[in-house]
């Protein structure tokens, strides 16, 4: 196929952690495309070099919350994978901004699909549209049909739930040219893999404490995790099959899953950090939950006091503590049944790829030597 004869895909948020893996996945595995438009507020110029003689990677700088930007990006395109989002549960940005990007941004994508005659939309939702809620209700090996007391107060999960509802309700609407819009929504659990910003933070934090991770969470609490490459692969397959079987996938939600083991959030992270000499201290939480909760409240107070001077947004706050302390794991085969999804990467490969990347942080870590010396390497 010569460049120009294939379809045009748009990936909103295509320069992000998931988005950039998705662009590479499309380039490697999707033969029906001639152009990938990477629409993002913050462009990663390295993606431009991925163009080849078959597919052009076109970077488009724009704001999803501005309709005109979205309309221009979608003009003449065939399918949109909408991953752009403000992923913030730490209070880094105001709630209004999260709503503006995640909800209004999604409204703009839907409006642009309608006006530009784009027939297919795959939305990157999140496990968070379901839970865990702050009441501590566990979601143990649940699926897309499992009953759960959904309760949202935080801006991020609220915004993802609203956006997903808009996407699913838009399935089947009439668009320009008399055709219909077909949509589906994918719900990843906690995504891990090369480029995960939060893992970088855990790595940096661990270096400061002599490569010791002081256990804060009960090892009995399981948290679903999924490898970024498999999330990207599921998006590619959903996009492909939504065009072939729109009545099957249209208006459906699918949890993203693979064979990553069910573990506590900390123990799962140690699958990678231990390869860099990190050790977890304690077989059970080293501090009682109430003390951790007080620390989380102190962080809220400090964030409030420092607001306007600096953005103080530590990992620990009452919401992240509640989420991390509540089991949320999925066990489903809906994506396999509806569109033949099988993870592209087995657990061992996903683990080795992630370990290789975490180890690369050691090499690139400028402050590595100083930190090790200063922190007297307590875990040797
Ligand atoms: N990281 C995770 O564990 C999970 C993420 N998700 C979802 O996956 C998607 C991707 O998340 P990540 O890759 O982790 O986040 P990310 O922050 O790495 O990527 C999001 C991208 O959206 C872009 N963006 C933000 N505001 C924008 C705007 N106004 N206009 C245009 N682009 C904008 C950012 O520049 C970034 O490149 C999001 O929709 C998120 O809700 C779902 C479940 C878990
Ligand atoms: C008590 C500790 C300091 C807590 C450390 C772990 C937490 C920071 C993370 C535990 C669970 C994570 C969330 C979960 O993976 C679900 C998510 C889905 C998304 O769409 C975005 C990210 C997140 C909210 C994720 C954020 C970090 C945790 C709360």
TrEMBL record:
Residues in domain 3-beta hydroxysteroid dehydrogenase/isomerase? 10-279
Query: Does the record bear Glycosyltransferase in its keywords?
Result: no
Residue spans crossing the bilayer:
286-306
* UniProt xrefs under Pfam families: 3Beta_HSD
Q: List the subcellular locations.
A: Endoplasmic reticulum membrane
Reaction equation(s) it catalyzes:
(24S)-7alpha-dihydroxycholesterol + NAD(+) = (24S)-7alpha,24-dihydroxycholest-4-en-3-one + NADH + H(+); 7alpha,25-dihydroxycholesterol + NAD(+) = 7alpha,25-dihydroxy-4-cholesten-3-one + NADH + H(+); 7alpha-hydroxycholesterol + NAD(+) = 7alpha-hydroxycholest-4-en-3-one + NADH + H(+); (25R)-cholest-5-en-3beta,7alpha,26-triol + NAD(+) = (25R)-7alpha,26-dihydroxycholest-4-en-3-one + NADH + H(+)
Q: Name one GO molecular function term.
A: oxidoreductase activity, acting on the CH-OH group of donors, NAD or NADP as acceptor
Query: Per UniProt, which keywords does this protein have?
Result: Endoplasmic reticulum, Lipid metabolism, Membrane, NAD, Oxidoreductase, Steroidogenesis, Transmembrane, Transmembrane helix
What name has this protein been given in UniProt? Answer: 3 beta-hydroxysteroid dehydrogenase type 7
Q: What is the lineage of its organism?
A: Eukaryota, Metazoa, Chordata, Craniata, Vertebrata
């Amino acid at each position: 196929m010569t460049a120009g004869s294939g379809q045009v895909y748009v990936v909103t948020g295509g320069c992000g952690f998931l988005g950039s893996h998705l662009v590479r996945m499309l380039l490697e595995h999707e033969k029906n495309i001639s152009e990938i438009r990477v629409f993002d507020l913050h462009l990663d110029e390295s993606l431009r070099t991925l163009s080849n003689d078959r597919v052009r990677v076109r970077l488009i700088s724009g704001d999803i919350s501005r309709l005109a930007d979205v309309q221009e990006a979608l003009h003449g395109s065939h399918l949109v994978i909408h991953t752009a989002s403000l992923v913030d549960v730490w209070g880094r940005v105001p709630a209004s901004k999260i709503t503006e990007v995640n909800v209004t941004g999604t409204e703009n994508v839907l409006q642009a699909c309608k006006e530009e005659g784009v027939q297919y939309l795959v939305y990157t939702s999140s496990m968070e549209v379901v839970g865990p809620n702050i009441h501590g209700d566990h979601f143990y090996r649940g699926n897309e049909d499992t009953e759960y007391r959904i309760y949202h107060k935080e801006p991020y999960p609220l915004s993802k739930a609203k956006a997903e509802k808009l996407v699913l309700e838009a399935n089947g609407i009439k668009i320009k040219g008399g055709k219909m819009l077909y949509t589906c929504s994918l719900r990843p659990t906690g995504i891990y893999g090369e480029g995960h910003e939060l893992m970088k933070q855990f790595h940096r934090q661990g270096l400061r404490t002599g490569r010791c991770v002081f256990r804060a969470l009960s090892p009995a609490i399981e948290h679903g995790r999924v490898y970024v490459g498999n999330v990207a692969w599921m998006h590619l397959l959903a996009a492909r099959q939504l065009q072939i079987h729109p009545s099957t996938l249209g208006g459906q939600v699918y949890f993203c899953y693979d064979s990553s083991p069910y573990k506590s959030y900390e123990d799962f992270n140690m699958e990678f950090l231990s390869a860099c000499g990190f050790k977890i201290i304690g077989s059970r939480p080293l501090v009682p939950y109430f003390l951790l909760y007080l620390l989380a409240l102190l962080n809220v107070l400090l964030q409030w006091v420092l607001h306007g001077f600096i953005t103080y947004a530590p990992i620990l706050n009452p919401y992240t503590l509640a989420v991390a302390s509540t089991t949320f794991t999925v066990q489903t085969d809906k994506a396999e049944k509806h569109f033949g999804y099988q993870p592209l990467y087995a657990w061992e490969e996903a683990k080795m790829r992630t370990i290789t990347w975490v180890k690369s942080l050691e090499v690139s870590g400028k402050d590595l030597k100083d930190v090790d010396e200063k922190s007297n390497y307590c875990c040797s």
